[in-house]
Write a structure and sequence with these properties.
The protein is an all-alpha fold. It has one domain (3-141). The protein has helices spanning 3-31, 39-70, 75-107, 117-141. Helix 2 runs antiparallel to helix 3 (75-107) and helix 3 packs antiparallel against helix 4.
């Protein structure tokens, strides 16, 4: 892998990883513990925050894939990059639409039981974190 592609891939990967960890695993669960934050308010904030995060993630995924693809990377780098990008696509195209429909219903005042779709989103986030960690480590060791 050439030095420029490795530097870009490293920076993009660790920025992406940091954003996912900070928002998905710190901000998202903590906002519901803040005084005065109701479920509708938390959902409204969460939708805005995750929409912004996902847009930034899409840009970072494109940058990471481009750096990996143009840098002559081995499979140890290409595979976790592809896994992270694929998981993001699954989140955006498969899981998030259902979560958005559900949050629309809650925001409209409907009382709903807890959703399993959220657990799938969290599971994909966890796997994405490990893929990004593997990508970052592998880029640094190539």
């Amino acid at each position: 892998m050439n030095a420029t592609s490795a530097a870009v891939a490293t920076a993009v990967t660790f920025v992406w990883l940091g954003m996912v960890l900070a928002i998905s695993f710190l901000e998202a669960p903590l906002k519901f513990r803040a005084p005065g934050v109701t479920v509708p308010i938390g959902l409204g904030i969460g939708r805005i925050v995750f929409r912004a995060l996902n847009r930034v993630e899409a840009v970072l995924a494109i940058a990471a894939i481009t750096a990996v693809a143009t840098g002559g990377s081995p499979a140890s780098v290409g595979t976790p990059a592809a896994v992270a990008a694929l998981l993001l696509a699954v989140q955006l195209l498969v899981i998030r639409p259902g979560l958005n429909r559900r949050s629309d219903r809650v925001l409209a005042g409907e009382a709903l039981p807890r959703s399993r779709a959220h657990h799938f989103y969290v599971a994909t986030e966890l796997v994405k974190v490990f893929a990004l960690l593997a990508l970052g480590i592998n880029v640094l060791t190539v």
